[in-house]
Queue: 4 jobs
Job 1
Amino acid sequence: YSGGGEGPPANSLRLTGEKDGIIEIGAKNGILYLNGSLDWETKKVHRLQVEALNEKGERVKGPFSITINVEDINDNPPVFSQSKYYGEVRQNSRPGKVFMHVTATDRDDPTTPNAQLLYSILHHFPSPYEEILFQIDNKTGAISPSMAGNKYLDPEKQADFLLVVTVKDLAGMSGNAFTSNADVAITVLENLWKAPLPVFIMENSTEQHPLSITKVGSRNHKKPARFPFIIDQNGTIYATEPLDREEKDSYVFDAFAKDNYGEALARPLKISVTVGDMNDNPPVCKRALTIFEVQENEIVGNYIGTLHASDMDQKDTLNSRLQFRIVDQTPKIPIDNLFIVQKETGQFQLSSSSLNRRVASNYSVKVEVSDGVFATLCDVWINVIDINDQIPIFEKSDYGSLVIPEDTQVGKILLAIQANDADEPFTGSSRIIYQIEGDQNETFRIETDFRTNRGYFKINKILDYETSPVYSLTILAKNPEPLVSGIQYNSSSIAYVQIHITDVNEAPVFFKDTYIVDVFENVTVGTFVTSVKAYDPEGAQIRYMLISNSRNWLRVDSYTGDIYTTAPFDREIEKAYIVQVVATEQSKESRSSTAQLILHLKDVNDNPPSLVKNSIFFCYPLSGGEKIEIEATDPDEHRLYPKFIFSLGGGETIQNDWIVHGFGVRRAHFSPKHPNLQKMQYSIPLKISDNGNPPLQGNVNLQVNICECTEDKTCFVPLDPDTSRPTVAMAVGILVGVLLVIGKWHSEMTQPDCNLC
């Protein structure tokens, strides 16, 4: 710019126009430079003029126009028009029928993907079904019921829902996209279009027509009763103490109706109690200190890590909904708010490209985690690490071939491998993760010692020569941190190994460890029960046998594994019959394995009822009206409860003298029909029928004694006078016994001591 032609030469340059304190020019060298950041959202175009000045500062040339167009980058998250939206939807609304919208805007350039927004539903509170009840148009933000919502939405079951709706920029296609969230409160309204109750109309009506007969619309419904824990004689159930959902969230119990004798009057009612949740637990940080790493050249918006926290309150409800917020960053250099955390997910992203390890090598970030009532502070430590511009390099590219038997134990180390990385030690840029290619079933795994980056090649699953005798594997060495632009992994980060599996004679393998079969106890001998199957991995023939067949109720076909009955079953002896089935290979080793067969015997009504106690007595003389309770029993299993029918057997005399009247389900009253019965022992035939299918009848004899009674109402049985005193023979016997004892005692007392003889 020394100038030419007429006039004084140019000595310096001057920049004017829309500099905004950011754009400057080197007065001597003419280089335009920035002393701050341009912002597309603030100013999209800067119009400038440059002039050449002489030594006196007078313009000698120009001005010349310069136009700077600012290109947008994705540096603004989308923002919802409201922090919370409210909507209403009718029960049974058509799937896809829009009932509300959410909208968001993005300050970035709308002609670029930076401002292209994608909507989705992140959370659904509560979430009572596996399928989500609402759906959102990912481009327009229109919310409507889903197919499941059309089916399940019911204000009597759940009237209020809260959706957490997410919007992402970059059309949701990048992991670096910014995200915002909003709450959507939805109230489910009753369906007004309902069938009326049945209508009754008298024929030939003379009333004015048209005649109103019913109304299509809603009807009132009574809400179901809530059932707690203790029941009184009126059938009212009570809770006896405050419940804790975190300790137990539901209870199931039976309520019985019984008579005064404790007998069930009907089948039990199953009562289910669900304990409602309240927000009584604070959020808990998963770790005392969460550590992340971020490269100093990380791109704005990049994912750094996720802060994990939990809440013991009920899952998928507002009580356990956690929201994250950064409350402090230390140090605050070069600027504050270097990081952002996603409010609903706890995901950390980089919000500025101002990281510099020489300025700050780490940051302490405090995050408040709130559930709406309680708040907890979680500590996050973020290390700023060197750029990842070095790839891992294997010390050996080929680890050769290994030969191992197929019965080698899972977890055994087969090989140690080593790759090295020249990046900053003990960071994500130098840490090495080994990956195996060519092992679709994940038979092997590699565990890394991150202090040395040495990898230990281990068996992850049981080996099987018959399935996979050879593995040709490729091992890749990579870093958890991304490589810088322009650097790629190459053959130096790849190694190879081949694994040869040798065959081992294995024991037979059953297709199932346990076979469970239900069979009626009255099946005929020789009935097929089930078939157990085993195979030998080496293809040898199999023979079967039974052990623990203690009652010899079963036999097995040694060639086929088919099992048959060999004797009648009796469920009253054993309800579940358990035997072991042994499969043995027909080879030199004769290896064997065992499976279990559990036979559940289903009851049939094959036992007639009987009396619990088969003798009673009445006090003589009879006064009339006496009755005694008798009880029946039956070892069979009845579908609900056993109910017995009592009746008298025998002839006309029995029918005229006695009566039996059943009550409850197991008991009956037995009594004389008149007081003129004699004092003696009676044997009364009774018939007792059960309620089995088909019913069985038991014929029993009840021994009834009519006797004189003592004061305490027990039967008095006097001794026979002829046997109440001893006979002559008995007296002689007693006297002889006494004399023998006396004689023996006198003999011992007069016998000299042999030691003194």
Note: The two ends are 160 Å apart (CA to CA).
Job 2
Amino acid sequence: MNGAMASAACGSSTSPLLPAVAPAASAKSSACPSKKTTATFPRRTVWCRAAGGRDDDGLLWLPRRDMLSTLGGVAAGLVGYPGLASGAAVEANPVESCRKGDKVNENLVKCTDPNREFPCPPPSPAKAVDFTPESTVKRVRQPAHLLSPENQEKYKEAIAKMKALPAAHPLSFAAQAAIHESYCDGHYRYDPAEKNRPFDVHFSWIFAPWHRMYIHFYEKALGQLIGDDTFALPYWNWDAPAGMVVPPLFRDPFGNPLYNKNREQSRLDKLVDLDFLNAPTDAPLIPFDGPKDDKYEALVNKNLCTMYQQQIRGGKGARAFLGEKLCSDADARLKEINARSKKRGGQKVKRDKTKSQGSLERMAHTALHVWVGRSGPPEGTTCSADTGGVLGHNGAYTCNNDMGFLGSAGRDPLFYSHHSNVDRMWHIWSTKLGGEGFKDPEWLDASFVFYDGVENPRPVRIKFRDVLDTRNLGYTYDAESEKELPWVASKINPLVPRGKGAPRAAAPAKALAYPLTLAAGEVVEVAGVAVPAKQASKVGPDHTEYAGSFAVVPSSKAGGGTLEGRITLFVDDVLDDVMGDRDTTVDVVLVPRTDEEIKLHLPPTIENQSQN
């Protein structure tokens, strides 16, 4: 495994009740609202402890209801698979969420790249037409491992015909893969003249609806190629124990258009690990068809707990599940933010760091991209075209292809069935789990243009509001497979004993100074943590102390291969478990799991989601 990520555990330590102290700056944008402004809420309180090097080291009262924890100003190298998670601190992130997200359309971003030939969609002489909702639901997506032999052959036939289309055809397999490459590997830009301002459909509230649109037109094209408007894209059912392996349909290498040689062969017939990027690098692989022993059952249980964390415990609210707003108005806002920060004696912020993934993107989705992709070049060699590497738009080769690299992920047919299940997770969240998307018009009216119609391709403009209900797109998911979702009732347990007689952690030896660089194997304690440092690396999605983690699929990035942004996690249930009804301080343990540099520019913050 090429590197890993970082995770965090929330803990609590009982503390004398001290008078609430207002921060030095105005309380307008504080992540810990004052007692005065929030007194109408039920009194379940959290003390936010300042985390080193600030001039407002007080304790602020915060009602515990729909809380979001935020780690601000993170810069992480993408060669490994970096990640972090968060706890609580006293000051709001100076780089606040956008006042308004971008209303994205074809006029805001352009596909171009000054570095090399680019995979932009071919131009069309015809003007884009607006999307018209489907009148009936004709397509029912089914689990790939349960697909009938007849439908398996239909799928192979459709993919073979798509691959046979000329690459210049906008609905060829090559062109479909290029769509993901262009939108996800830095080819779309806010301003083509500014190399360091790429647009990406990841790391924000764009992720889920954009991929739903993309997969929809891909699915329709496959049906058109075989003359079957009921054809539905099967999904890789990795959230159920029976589907926790790469489906056999994709593994047969003989004359199979669904097979891809650029996969990590050693993992294809193994039980998947949905928390793969948090696992030890020497963790043994477990055969899927092997004995169902304690190790097998333990990993299945951890996978189900990961899904529970992603969909339920950590996915409460649109921001937590779908991600933060997308902002491009960085320059104007940074001037204002830095002026305000200067008055506080704070540091100057160099770039906009507001973007943040939701749990839908950063958990099972990302882990399985990396699980399927190659782990690197053959041992003893360097990555190049000769060793099977792919060229990113930055001119560098990567050997984590295909699924393990955003620029090449769409070249693997498994990618589309993987994302069909990611889409299903959004569908389940929106229907069975009662999740509600954003109401911002900037999100609802964001639009993209895709080609439709194999015989006579035409560009179609489709908005996010068009895709909130899959029935508008003419498809749904197999109801039989959703009667029982095994992860809904997952049971997670504390790693550290709670209650009377439980061990109390000592305060850190020294205050933390920001920016703070995190190194693999070095557990960082913020304030007085309740999870002892020696146990922090053991915290996972099957533990109540687990606040979350962050990981990305590698891509070509300008500016030294770093991703800058912030991490937002829903922590209400975590606080319930580690604190109960007590008034306590909330602390955090940061556990970096990558050999690449992770830099934390600001201390963690906590805010009330219901006030946003």
Note: Residues 277 and 311 are 18 Å apart (CA to CA).
Job 3
Amino acid sequence: MSSLVPGIERALSDKSSTSNLKIEALVFTRLVMASNPPVVFHPHIQALTNPVLAAVNERYYKVTSEALRVCGELVKAIRPELVQSPSFNFIPYVQPIYSTILKRLTAQDQDQEVKECAITCMGLIISLLGDQLKRELGVCLPLLLDRLRNEITRLTTVKAFATIAESPLKIDLSCILGQAVLELTTFLRKANRALRLASLGTLNALLIAYGDKIGSSSYESIIIELSSLISDADLHMTALALELCCTMMKDKRHHSYAGVVVKERVLPQALVLVKSPLLQGQALQTQLLSLLCLGEIGRRKDLHSHINLEGVIIRSFQSPSEEIKSAASYALGNIAVGNLSKYLTFILSQIDNQSKLQYLLLHSLKEVIARQSTDDAGKVDFKGTDVQKILALLFTHCQSEEEGIRNVVAECLGKLAILEPGKLVPALKERTLSSSAFTRATVVIAIKYTIVDRPQPIDMHIKPCIDSFLMLIRDEDRHVRRAAVSALSTAAHNKAVLVKDLLPALLPLLYDQTVIKKELIRTVDLGPFKHTVDDGLELRKGAFECVDTLLDNCLDQIDPSSFIDPYLLSGLSDHYDVKMPCHLILSKLAEKCPSAVLAVVDTLVEPLERTVTTKMKPDAVKQEVDRNEDMIRSALRAIESLNRISGDASSRFKAFMNNVVKSGPLAERYNAVRHESDAVVTGDIMDMS
């Protein structure tokens, strides 16, 4: 940033700078600020603030609107954490930013885009800096209320009020709260669907934060208006309306009154909705619905007084319907949450004794474990002995012959590890040395389930030992290798920092999994004919998909040349399931590492030509024909990516384009792919600007 900021300053402040240069500089600044930690910009806030605020006052609306968007990012950067003693002194910047945005918010004769950007920015300022603007709230909040009443700006203002309502600062909205709620309520009957959706979300946020300051009459008006939105004509709208109803009934001050009105106005509509044929699957079957309701009730209230309830649910495990079996599993797990001492013991004993029902019972156990980290409605508090019993059972079933059971066991272990990292991570690491290949594979998959896309306390436990799990990519058993590849892919996608330092050692091992291994190909004798089975296919496919993820998140660790030849070239000649991810990888490499691709473009022609000229047998079924068409389109997308960068670098590729791709039966399909690609590129450019 130290190198970039002077250039940004010059582009915005130099009198010779054109409007287009200023716009590009502002877009760049916004994208950089949105994609990096706020602390990166703290040394440069002073240098950035003055030219950006000056740009807000520019006459050209495109410059002004983009500057307002950058102001929004500045506000997020100067106060990223709403704490009493922030690491960065943001207070000197509050008034200059507020005053500049207020001037734009009050101006009348300006472009619609500028108005909307000013409203959005003011919403961010109030939500993040409102505690430093207590005297000013009496000015800016009525202004926003005025914009809420304006037909042109009301949708943007509705979203701004949602941002303010969700602020942990609990901004004092008393001067406009009642009027804002009234306006939002009237919007629920407007024809504009986007406005109704946004209004439902904002009302929900306001009621959660300020429900005790909103009168009963407003509650009644809201319920009456939203009752007309509950139908199968718009299930998304219905879901938001029902969520708002639940929020109102949870309010301790109004729940009795709201409950009565909901019962009169909303419940009849909800009961009609339950009968709608548009609800997915078999959600209308009364057994199914009863099981789901039992689970929801049991999670919140102890049902042990109902004799043999668990037996009734277990009988539903025998249903021919997979949905009912799944609902029964969910119900049993959630009922156990309401009384762990009774039902957890029952579930564990049944897992050991009912071998045919183990899969469903393990899903019930997974529900129990998952509730440890969810909302307060039925939050579980395990005892130490409970954890020991669960662990003993799960580690026993790591060796199950059924892959489905091992996968559920792994998910249970992963969720439990998130809750008890100090105890579980060493136990999982110890079993990477197990003599059982199934156990080794299961604990690797378990680690995969611990790597989520948000910071967790378990991260500090995993980082020092994750190599013990991922290095099993060189295990002698293909199931273990596949599990390690899957874990690496998840880590690269969710938390690349965990694996970046290991990639120099892991990448050669990963690339080796993309190669066809003859020892994994076997022939099955089916009497009159023989069938070839490739046991390494899924592993190769997974390995290429992992490389695809690494290209997105760890490109700086990858040498594209050593991967393209021979590994990608091999994949482009492999099975259909392998070719598809290889085409995607080739397109990405053409965009991100064009020189490495151009160096071998001649050798890419042969496998691509074989793919796009593949002829199906006359007796091929429709599924085979469709798969082949998908593969050809996929290859043509990769070819178009190469064409964009090739120029005159390769006479062989140029001949291939002219003689094969752009002529004959492929020409029409290639043109369709090319137009599709042009549309995506244009869309990306518009999004950036």
Note: The chain has a mean pLDDT of 89.
Job 4
Amino acid sequence: MATSVLTLALLSLYFVFSPASAADRITANSSIADGQTLVSAGGVFELGFFTPPTSTARFLGIWYKDIAPLTVVWVANRQAPIIGTTASLVINSTGSLVLADRSGHMFWSPAPSNVTSSTPVAQLLDSGNFLIVDANGTGAVLWQSFDHPSDTLLPGMKLGWELTTGLDRYLTTWASPADPSPGDYRFEIDIRGVPEGFIWYNGTLPVYRNGPWNGLRFSGEPEMEPDNGNFLFEFVANSTDVYYTFLVDGGGGGDVISRFVLNQSTLQRYVWLQQQQAWNLYWSLPRDQCDRYAECGAYGVCDASASPMCGCPTGFTPASPREWALRDGSAGCARTTRLNCTGDGFLALPGVKLPDVTNATADASVSLDQCRQRCLANCSCLAYSASSIKGGESGCIIWTSPLIDIRQFESGGQNLFIRLAASDLPSNGDNSKKKNTALAVVLSLLGLLLFGLGGFFIWTKFFRNKGRFQSTRRLTSFDSSNPLYPVQDRNTEEESSQSNGLVDVTLFDMATIALSTDNFATSAKLGEGGFGAVYKGELGGGQTVAVKRLSKYSTQGLDEFKNEVMLIAKLQHVNLVRLLGCCVHGEERILVYEYMENKSLDTFIFGTYVDQTCRSSTRIMDLQIGSL
């Protein structure tokens, strides 16, 4: 009671004797009454009493001095509006800064500091920071408005935590344009797991998440260009502090005026355009539907440029196909194959906002490859990524809970490696695994090549020149370009092996024969007899040949045909057409002769010796094809 009476007495004296002030500070012998202001030394900011649009209440706040309309960046008595103009800001006898009216009713006072001073001074700086310092030579900061933001973050302010004291600096919206009391939305740095920023509704429901800091920017804000000449962004995370801050003009101040504002559920950065005398919206978040927290559910990937926006990565399918078909992806995606720990690999998702890291762990001291090995060794690990992309990918973030709030960017973003069962891995999904198996693949191919070369060598050395088939079993096709040798009878094998008069006959493949005769075209037919038709053909080297296609209704066996071919090939006579080769393909039996111009083929085929000795065995002596 005595203290209240003393405070009331002092306030009465201040109201009577304190002159209107345009200075930048308040001492124990001065005050700021309604209608008076403090102005920072450089004339950038002003502190005083104001009334919001459409309101009648009075509030103590800080605004830009020479910018119209009034742009308030900080409010002291957000939850205690003043009715009337009788309030004043004073430093009382105990050294506390107090906002009270003449009746002694206190509307606001800074939280007590652990450091006290007998000579406190309250001062407004050109940065917009209003602070209380010890004027007794130490200059220690006892309290500052930058530690207690309203809805605006100014250059040099810290958004985040002072871990040693538990101080949490966060932004809260105005309840309405006419009411600066705290609204429903708050933007703060969440230090659980890996630090990242959240917009919360009513303090519990996440609305937007900007992702973890990656050394250059927040993972979900690729438009944050580092050191772009106008802004310098910085994020500090150590044992004593976790906070985000920014500077303008590289920290030099200059002509750039910018503020970062939480406007209901939206984060907005504004810059002041001097020529237009207006605020310009530099960027705004959330930027689209994909920025809504968990828009596509667990493991879902949101792509604002796609339709539908929600998709499942390889190895996953919609958890609720019906809702998915109705463009509701909130149920997310489910794995196609369960993980079994051993044999798993990773699917690379490039250019994404990293998932929620509230339950993730980070280690900046390891390489990305070491991070992969850690994840493989931990059966609970579901994904990993680099914790920093500054100067290349390094560090490690590991997720052990479902991956939530992933979005795809057209440019920017980071690489995320999702664990998949081996059966779900695409051929190009896990580059690391491919590297590990590349040597084995190369060695396998080399072994096959050596085996093939060895087999070819053995065949060439021991079988190619033996002059006979190694098996008498009936074949359906023996298309090749190898010489043909007769089938030996077991009873005459010894006799045949002693013969040196074997003749090679070329085997033509069916494709070559069909191509040379234009697929046995009628226009290429020279004639036809009881045992088949004869066609004019041209081989690949330009050689013209006569092709006899024997009837498919022949009952002659393959071995008999081979032996008869060899018999014809041995017949060398000036009056006989030379046999060039043959083809056997399925039921096809084909003979290829040299082609003679301006002669009658029967002149050569039906020579006296052949006509008398070989007509029945060759089955080709009945064809008269007219003048060639």
Note: The mean pLDDT is 82.
